[in-house]
Amino acid sequence: MDISSLLSPPEATQPPSPPPVSMQSPRKQTRRHPSGPVKRGLTSSPLSHSAVPPSNIPLHVSSPTHRPTASSPLASPTTGVLRNSTPPHPVEVSRQSSTASMDALADLAAMQNHQPTRSAAPSLRSKDSYESQLTPSTIFPVVQPPSAAANPRASFDIAMAETPKPAARTDFAGTSLSPELQKDANVLAVDLQQNPHSYESHAQLIRLLHQAFVHHVYPPTSPDAHGDPHSFDLLHDLRAAREGMDKIFAIGEDLWAEWIQDESMLAKTIEEKISLMEKCSKAVTEEYGSVKLWIVFGEWLLHTHKLYHQTSEEAAAGLSEEDRELGQDIFSWSVVVEVWQRGAEETRWRMNDSHLVWNRYIDLLIQDLQKTRSDELIREIKFLFDARLQTPHADWDGTFQVFSTFVSAYMDKQYEEIMVATKRKATDAKSKWEARQPMEIALQQAQEAGDRTAEYVALANYVQWERTLAGRKRFSFDLTNALYQRAALRFPSDPQLWEDHILYLIEEGYAHRITESVLPTLGRATRHCPWSGSLWAQYLLSSEREAQSFSQTEDIKHRATNTGLLDVGGVEEVIKVHAAWCTYLRRRAFQVDSTDEDLDVAEMGIRSAIENLQDLATRKFGEGSNPDPMFRLERIYIKFLSESGSWDTARETFRGLIPKQGDSWAFWIQFYMWEMSCWAKFIQREKTEDGNISRKTPVPHYATAVLRQAVKRETLDWPEKVMSAYITHCEDHEDVEELQMAIVEVRKMEKIVARRREAEALQAAAKTEAQATLPPQHAAEAITRTIEANTSQSGKRKRGGEDEPVADSSKKSKIEGNTTVASRKQVKRDRENATILVQNLPEDVTELKLRQFFRDCGRLNSLKIIQQNGTSAVIEFDAREAALFAQTRDGKDFEGQPLHIQLGSGSTIFVSNFPPTADEGYIRELFDRFGQIVDVRFPSLKYNTHRRFCYVQFRLNEQAQAATELDGQQMDKDLKLVAKISNPAAKQERTGPMEEGREVFCKNLHWSASEEDVKILFSRYGNVESVRIPRNVMGKSKGFCYVVFSSEEEATAATALNAHSFMSRELHVEVSSKTGGKRQATTIVSSVDRSMSPSTGVNGAAGSPSAMSTTSPNTEQPSGDRQARTIALMNVPDTVNDSRLRAITEQYGSLVKIVLRPDHQGAVAEYTDAQNAGKASLGLEGYEITPGRNLRVGTVPEMLRQEAEKKTDKIQIGKARKDYPGSTQASLQPSGPIRRPGQQAGRRGGLGQKRGLGFVAPSGKSQQEEATNASSQVGKSNDAFRELLNKK
């Protein structure tokens, strides 16, 4: 039965307000009591029929960050119970149209009228398949508390503008609560009395009372007992707490689910059930797209339908005939189906879980079809399946299988034709799902792990990826919009997320890709984040753009400002709202159809906004404070006055701002530009009225006076800008006398400014030096005082609007090169001095909450939580000053626990001269006895493969100090360990012969020349300390040498040997200079014949004796083709050196050489035997070389196609996430099949012109032979390697 058919014409009228539907009780005027007795213990909740062990009841007394793992017993009926009930025909009840109890049905009809046509909905399920989709947490949903990232403030109802009173009870002594819970409840009640806007206190009190309610209904000590929910002594307090919170906050998906489930056990009468339906409707509208709430709503409605339509004597004994007939009308089968239809439509584009609602909806339609077969219904269900299968979703295959069953049962003759056509149409939907499946998996894994930070990052990356698809084939507005809605449900109090969503909708609207209104989304956004001025400002702008009435737009403004919740966001947020409101009033006042009353309203509204903002600043910062250095509201007022022709009033407004804004160069330039615009309009009007163009244009004296007054202010923040404008203006518009006077005034001011700049720079340098010498605690206090002082000087700011000291505002100081300031060493990243250790943290603390707690101190580079000996965290800031400022929060309360904060300076040691094969495990084992190690950092070898050092960060400074006792310890032969406290500011410059200019490089040296020969040659120019001739593995010279003298002068003199002939070869001699770091490292293990092994020269050139074909008696002769003996290792971290790779690969046989390529995340290993290469391929595939990084084995061209590793150890926000999504690209590469590289035809063996690997084509084969070998090698795989090993 259609709902509208139950209503009288006046009641059926659609209300003007959009959903949510606010349904009033149908008996609010004539209350009737059931005529029959109500059996005691009878409840309208399905919970009374389900036995859920008390051990499954979740605890909800924890903070909003607690994530219960057990399923809640407060749930809807099981699927099986509902499926066994066949929906009967609706019962027609004859009633008078004026019955007052039908008021609520009008609203329900309005909900129906707002629905799209059924054709937009999706598909079907069988009973078994549907039950397989519902996990226990779906049948009995786990109600999760609000997000840990939730800002402890949310919005309010416009109808409840006044601050609600907290729960009436403030003393819970003598209640059914345990003594411990009584104490907690008393604390929360007192806190709410003092601070009614505390989100945390509201949520914790509700969870505490909810837990007590659950234990009352399902006693933990008596699994089979069921208490009467109405006899709970704190039921009134629980309801009052929820209603009070709902008046000012959007309470969130999880708290709504708890509320509905509790009330489902309490609702007995028809009025209570309709009231519960109101709550359900409000919940699914406020938390748009929530699958959890739609399931709770729909399952409760199904249970209620069954309750009123059953005909058993037991049911009849509990309900009066009148109530049963009325319940059958209200909770009819059509209402149930309509609610599930709406849920399926609103959750349609949720790819991950929309099938849970849609399957249930289509199952209800199938029940109708099974009862009464209808061709029309068959076509409708087929249409729904077609739409669903063309919608991307996770359970597409399951939906298709059920569709196949449906077609087979009802359209069997057309089965093949329908299935083929359906698959063809669904190609686009499947491709869209496959493209998004990896991100859905990553998001699901983060949610299952309970990692809120990882979940937020996964969502952000997902959204960013969706946004990049705009205009492409795989783009879908509906999917992107639904993803934003999913993110809002998970992180409802993140204003940045909401704002991104709103701006996305606005952008799509202007691009004409959507036509829907953005106002409903803005309504939800401002309800969840009422402290965000940006969201309220967008709400006002969108209301104006969508041509809402003045009263509606004014209503939005009052909702933003009346409760005081906006004030907690800060003055800047308040200014955004007032600015949007004032610009709206100004534009409205000058529309074509505006009246004088509109002008008066605009003027009074703008002036009122300015006064309100000043009052707020006075309350917050004291008398005379400047809330808006950019005077945005005053500019709007001046613009309004100018447009209305009140030039003098506008000028006086500008002059009235001088006491507060007079030190800002931007203010004077704005004032000057306004005067010039007035002058231009005056000139234009004069020319229009007179009709004669005078040779001499009137001089803009008012504008000149503004600049003259500005130049004379000695406290101006950027006087150079104003002085330049003053001179230019006089040159363009004034006579010679005024120009000369301007030059004189500017010259005077330049001298004053120079003296001021010098004094400020010296003062700043002295303060910096003084803070550097203070103990850490005193330095932190000094920085805090400086920040407070700069904040109080709100009138002095930089021209960019940043709140910085005036001393730093000049970019043109004449003493920029001050030696005191310049002498301080600048470090790229002062990690050691910008780190703090935070102790005594709660056990369940998250990174997101810590970042929010310290975000005002400065930018966070990294954060690591340590769960050992209590919970602590190591936080690195972007600057040392931020760490000192963060230390001032020592002792502050964090979720009920006082924090212990200390600086991390001195907790990191610099370690070098350890064995080349040492890895992180070796370093940790070496230093583990000194204390808890937080991190071990190896440098990247991407740009220099010869780096060998690391940083070891300890938890405490004392532990790091103790670890320095290993400094100087003998590790291996000629290796003494270096272990010192890391201090970037005290970093020493490299010393040695090359850095001191005492080393000479000589090349083109004869192969047979010895060190003694070279020493004799160079001794004529001074004292030769040493001579070094690099040699290959065969012990032969490489043709160059290094000569070290005792002084720089001697080395310079030795360059006279350049072009000198020595042993029949012309020498090339020069002073050694620093060269760039090597980006690859080649380690030659054994010498081989040139024709069988790649050369170490560039592109295979025989640049050294190692590449010559001459063999030595000690040379190990390789067997087999070179390509068969060579493997490429991929996914090699850029912190792994060639020594470690050699140690790993040499386990499988003798090597010819190892070539490390960190610029391609790989390495090349050449063995002396193809069988050894085969064993290495099998053994190294999947080898975990570092934690979380597994090697892959492939061909050299595959390795060279890999890009260099992109990674960062800093916390990324905003656009930076695009380049650094939280994991390196290499770690996500799929594992490929292990195969031996095939030799391609060509002079470089298929390697092209890539430099650095040193491969040359075998010299003893023709191109045809090489091509034959290549074709025989390409097809080899793991089976070929196994066969090769078996032969051995």
From TrEMBL:
Biased segments, Low complexity type: 1232-1242
Q: Where is the composition biased (Pro residues)?
A: 12-21
- Where in this chain does the record put each RRM domain? 834-906, 907-984, 998-1074, 1125-1198
Per UniProt, subcellular location reads as: Nucleus
> Which residue windows does the record flag with biased composition (Basic and acidic residues)?
1204-1220, 1279-1288
Q: Which Pfam families does this one have?
A: RRM_1, RRM_occluded
Which residue ranges are recorded for the region named Disordered? Answer: 1-99, 113-132, 787-829, 1088-1122, 1204-1288
Q: Name one GO cellular component term.
A: U6 snRNP
> SUPFAM superfamilies in the record, alphabetically?
RNA-binding domain, RBD, TPR-like
User: Care to name a GO molecular-function term for this sequence?
Assistant: RNA binding
The biased composition feature labelled Polar residues covers 62-86, 1088-1098, 1106-1120, 1260-1276
Q: Which GO terms describe its biological process?
A: mRNA processing; RNA splicing
Which parts of the chain span the membrane according to its record? Answer: none
Stored CDD domains: RRM1_Prp24 (cd12296), RRM4_Prp24 (cd12299), RRM_SF (cd00590)
Q: Which UniProt keywords apply?
A: mRNA processing, mRNA splicing, Nucleus, Repeat, RNA-binding
Task: Provide the function of this protein.
Answer: Functions as a recycling factor of the spliceosome, a machinery that forms on each precursor-messenger RNA (pre-mRNA) and catalyzes the removal of introns. Chaperones the re-annealing of U4 and U6 snRNAs (small nuclear RNAs) released from previous rounds of splicing, an initial step in reforming the U4/U6-U5 tri-snRNP (small nuclear ribonucleoprotein) that can reassemble into another spliceosome complex; this step involves binding U6 and facilitating the unwinding of the U6 internal stem loop, followed by base-pairing of U6 to U4.
Q: Which PANTHER family did the record assign?
A: RNA BINDING PROTEIN
Q: What is this protein called?
A: U4/U6 snRNA-associated-splicing factor PRP24
What does the record give as the organism's lineage? Eukaryota, Fungi, Dikarya, Ascomycota, Pezizomycotina
